[in-house]
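Narrative of activities, Objective 1.

The group set out to show that a structural description can be obtained from nothing but a protein's sequence at a throughput compatible with the screening campaign. Below is one input-output pair from the validation batch, recorded exactly as produced.
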Amino acid sequence: MGYKNVCVNCRISLSEGTNYELFNTNKTCPTCKSKMYFVNEKFKAPKKSNDKEWKIIEYLLLSGYDFRNPYCGQEQCIYFEFPKNLQEAEAFIREMRTLK
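Output recorded for this entry:
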């Protein structure tokens, strides 16, 4: 477990450990040299062959979601269910934006 960097092109997730102070959040993929997305330890990569889930993950990452769960405000914590399709992902991002 620990924070991760994710490449949606190669469909890989590389563990960064648990010490946030040591993380490089601006990494490039060692395979394809594209941008890697820094995500919370809650992220669990699907199989490389799972096109549907990787499209949802790519949409969420491009929208700025870093897989933190739950959202904890001053008075409450809200837990979220992972979107099952792109329509749910779009609604999920709209909801996230209202909470910030």
